[in-house]
Amino acid sequence: MPVKKAVRRKRGNRKGFTTGACAAAAARAATLGLVTGKLQNTVVCRLPNETDVSFKVESCVVEVEYARAVVIKDAGDDPDVTDKAHITVDVYLKKQDNTQEKIILLNGPGVGTVTQPGLGLEVNGPAINPVPQKNIRENVSAVAGNLLDKHNVEIIISVPGGEKMALRTLNGRLGIIGGISILGTSGIVHPWSTAAFRSSVIQAIEVAASQEQKIIVLTTGGRTEKFVISELPELPSVCFVQMGDFLKVALDTVINNGIKRIVIGAMVGKLAKMAQGENITHARKNPVNMQMVSEIAQAAGAGDDIVQDIAKADTARYASERMSEIGLLNEFYLQLAQKVMHTLLEKYDHQFTLKIMICDFEGNKRLELDSEQV
What we know:
By secondary structure, this protein is α/β, with parallel strands linked by helices. It is built from twelve helices and 18 strands. Strand 14, helix 6 and strand 15 (240-242) form a beta-alpha-beta unit. Helix 1 runs parallel beside helix 2, helix 8 (268-275) crosses helix 12 and helix 9 packs across helix 12. The chain is elongated.
């Protein structure tokens, strides 16, 4: 049987800008409009990383005590659900009230509201993360001049269509309703941003811990998450965290938050990476140790010809297909799950109990192994 080769997709490397950077740029442009009385076509915005970037202002409205500016988010080559979102900022001059902050940030349509603790944001407040909040205020202050001597400035950030965009994010599970979050720590979106995803994994686990959940269910993607949710309907949604390839980040965060029970839902390829002790399970990192996979197949009962064939292959999926052909797939999955369990529990000195749940490439359950029952 021919060996199947993995096909890798080419990815671009053009950087983009965060929702937070775009909101800061739009807020600065609207404030400049109020100061100068002129419509702004472009605006130079200071990002959180201390660089100055020129943004195109898609549209601008300026009245006596009100201005609006819109900046269209460019996520570069990152596959961001908010790419091309119209980040819209309305700025109102209000009668000065010394009991309030001079610059008040509010969320409008399409920007979420925080409903649960654990995000470092005020419950019932806008889903605007701390760094973007600070950056927006700094940009407004930089150009407001004497406006702030006479007025409070109310800034409302909205994103048309943000409610729909949010359905493709973790916001609902984190208790953010009604739209997207305004995010960004540097202002820059890196292509296929690992930093952003890594941060979302940590945040999701911390939110579950803040709600005193005792179990975290880690999955590697959409299919595995759908699979484990169907298998564990009794758990609240906040317990389910898509860790993607960030195995070590997820496990370290679980341990640091004192959670002692972990479930991992995955398919054969990611499990093979876990079994060989990888911290990151991405295909572009170290290749699957096919010698190890062939030994797992041998332990499951495969003959020498199959074992040798698997050892020469490129993917763990190929091994599962060969084991299925000879009727030993379940035995193969059991040996693989045992290897993963041994590797992780030894690596983390048994600081948690572990359940491994395996599904096939159609999302159907194939095996479940629990360290509490072994």
